[in-house]
Specification:
By secondary structure, the protein is mostly helical. Helix content is 75%, strand content 4%. It has one domain.
Length: 169
Amino acid sequence: MIKLIIPILTTLASIVYLHHLYRLRGLNDVKLFVAISTSIVVPLESLGVYSGRYKYIWHNYLINSYFVATGWIMNIYPMMHISLFILIGKRYFKANDISRGKKLQASILTGIFAVLYDLFLDPVAVSLGIWVWSVEGQWFGVPIRNFVGWFFIASTVTLIYLLLAYAKK
């Protein structure tokens, strides 16, 4: 049952967040965000799975890739939105440009928020058997390097998106 519910929930959450982005910034930003996040996270997650570091309950490359893509959209977008809102206020989504300093700050803050979120998410997912680590880690079975990866992935996706979406037009 969990094999079916999790992709449905990540899909629904991703649709809600992408609709939010669409309403704030338009279709081009939705396409840009999806393209950036998917092109970074799917290959990295695939590398983790096929290197034997961890495995998902779906033993299918397409299902894993779909879950990873929607899951990371679900994880990064709200953290990025909150970071931008904290740093710039609600006017950020109407801006054509954001300073490089604010883009960097927002990407770092997004990475921090993503790690804080994952400190709770990953142990629950491990206990539900959604993914299994090959070597049990220090944080409720999750290796510390996972959180380092979360920080860099969320920060990188956010920074690239902000650099491209908020370039002077």
